[in-house]
Known about the structure:
This protein is an alpha/beta fold. It is built from 10 helices and 15 strands. The protein has 2 domains: 6-124, Rossmann fold (3-Layer(aba) Sandwich); 131-275 and 298-322, Dihydrodipicolinate Reductase, domain 2.
Amino acid sequence: xxxxxxxxxxxxxxxxxxxxxxxxxxxxxxxxxxxxxxxxxxxxxxxxxxxxxxxxxxxxxxxxxxxxxxxxxxxxxxxxxxxxxxxxxxxxxxxxxxxxxxxxxxxxxxxxxxxxxxxxxxxxxxxxxxxxxxxxxxxxxxxxxxxxxxxxxxxxxxxxxxxxxxxxxxxxxxxxxxxxxxxxxxxxxxxxxxxxxxxxxxxxxxxxxxxxxxxxxxxxxxxxxxxxxxxxxxxxxxxxxxxxxxxxxxxxxxxxxxxxxxxxxxxxxxxxxxxxxxxxxxxxxxxxxxxxxxxxxxxxxxxxxxxxxxxxxxxxxxxxxxx
Length: 323
């Protein structure tokens, strides 16, 4: 194997892990060299996708870390992420990690400190941060050319129950925030990243919709600068759809089903970026090679972490919570 080849280990070989295998193997100078998952069937299914004939298979991620690797991609259940990130950094591996990382402030600090002490790359997979149209929208909002942000609304709906029934995502010990924690961070992160605003307070209501984890979450929040925000996340919908509205003094921005838009001649028009989208996997390889900046470092997870915890606390107590 050539010295310039980046050898990856995949920790968590379920659906998301296999998606990363497919994308990473399409990149030049990248090889999948090791797989880890406690489920033998997941390991077998993932190994069938790997072009490297001598791929290491392990039931424990710590065994995978003994293999000669430059980087790992973590796509395991949410509650395993922090331990696996820390172990990977201690073993000298760069880390691309599926979101969410953690709801614990102390665990987030541990990851940031470990990243800093090792000098390795840690990036999260918030897709919108890697998308050229979303980046263009963010640049225009943060430029100030349209004035300050005046209001935000966030709506997301999908059938998160049916495909996840009987899996770890319905287990409150392994996915304590349910649909809200596991999936709705995409929209929340996009809003706070695109506007540069941190959450101040939140009042939320939660319904588990017959499961043991939060499925429907709705409420009102206030972002920095007294900017009002309303939100409604529905995990028992019948089709995936979303609409996010960011109102500025002289422009409205809309994200409708992942497509950023703005207003031209009184009508929503899709934003056409000047650059193309590479995606998280390709950009992560560029980060390792020192060619690209990191658009999704763990340092920038604080707003969503604090909003999520405050919303769940507000739902539990029935009172508005500080973020």
